[in-house]
């Protein structure tokens, strides 16, 4: 990647993390990157175009970092443990603050909205791979929707990341509750064949009744 482009992308992410949307401008990004302001528009056409590309790259880097970790996950409880690790790393790196700013800007700008959707879709795909794998031998296979469950996990962690800024203890308690649900799923996995068939039948009736 061109060195100037890389500097501008890193600077855009840094400004968003540290100063939020209110502090974001071509001038502040260029100053953080140590380059001429005109280079923002030369390389990216618009400021939001720069933010879009920078945020997508940040998400891709984070997902790549966790891909090996996700590949070792063999249960929903382990997935939630990995989610805790991810949560702490992303918070320390400032990416929680970055996502909060993206979601805020998405309400007013389609480019930022696309960046936020890209971030969520990218994490959803990674988590869905894990969910499909851990459900493959579970009594819940064919009943639980892996794509929907992956989105629920993603939405839970995203919401908790934002919630944590207001009530950290409450967010940690919610993470504990999610892990307890994961344990419950493992208990279901250990049911015998008769109980498993009864559970599957009950869940099918519940889905048909919706």
| CATH class category label of the largest domain | Mainly Alpha
What is the CA–CA distance across the termini?
51 Å
Instruction: State the helical fraction.
Output: over 70%
How is the CATH topology of the largest domain named?
Tetracycline Repressor, domain 2
Describe the sheet with the most strands: none
Beta-strand content: under 5%
Silhouette: elongated
Query: What is the helix tally?
Result: 10
Mean pLDDT: 80
Which radius of gyration do the C-alpha atoms yield?
20 Å
Structural features:
elongated; 210 residues; Arc Repressor Mutant, subunit A; 10 helices; single chain; Tetracycline Repressor, domain 2
Describe the fold and architecture.
The protein is mainly α and 210 residues long. The chain folds into two domains: 1-45, Homeodomain-like (Arc Repressor Mutant, subunit A, Orthogonal Bundle); 52-208, Tetracycline Repressor, domain 2 (Orthogonal Bundle). The chain is 81% helix and 0% strand. The chain is elongated and about 65 Å long. It starts with a helix and ends with a helix.
SSE layout and pairings?
Blueprint lengths: L2 H17 L6 H8 L4 H7 L2 H25 L4 H18 L1 H12 L3 H26 L10 H19 L3 H22 L3 H16 L2
Helix pairs in contact: 1-2, 1-4, 1-6, 3-4, 4-5, 4-7, 5-9, 6-7, 7-8, 8-9
């Amino acid at each position: 990647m061109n060195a100037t482009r890389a500097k501008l992308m890193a600077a855009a992410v840094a400004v968003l993390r540290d100063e939020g949307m209110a502090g974001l401008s071509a001038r502040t990004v260029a100053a953080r990157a140590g380059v001429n302001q005109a280079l923002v528009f030369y390389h990216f056409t618009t400021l939001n175009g720069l933010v879009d590309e920078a945020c997508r790259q940040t998400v891709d880097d984070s997902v790549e970092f966790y891909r090996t970790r996700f590949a070792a996950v063999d249960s929903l409880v382990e997935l939630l443990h990995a989610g805790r690790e991810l949560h702490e790393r992303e918070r320390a790196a400032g990416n929680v603050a970055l996502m909060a700013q993206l979601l805020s800007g998405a309400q007013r700008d389609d480019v930022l909205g696309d960046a936020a959707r890209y971030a969520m879709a990218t994490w959803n795909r990674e988590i869905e791979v894990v969910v499909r794998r851990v459900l493959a031998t579970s009594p819940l296979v064919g009943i639980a929707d892996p794509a929907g469950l992956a989105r629920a996990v993603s939405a839970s962690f995203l919401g908790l990341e934002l919630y944590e800024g207001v009530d950290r203890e409450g967010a940690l308690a919610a993470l504990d509750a999610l892990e307890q649900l994961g344990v419950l799923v493992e208990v279901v996995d250990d049911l015998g064949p008769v109980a498993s068939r009864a559970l599957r039948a009950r869940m099918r009736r519940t889905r048909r009744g919706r």
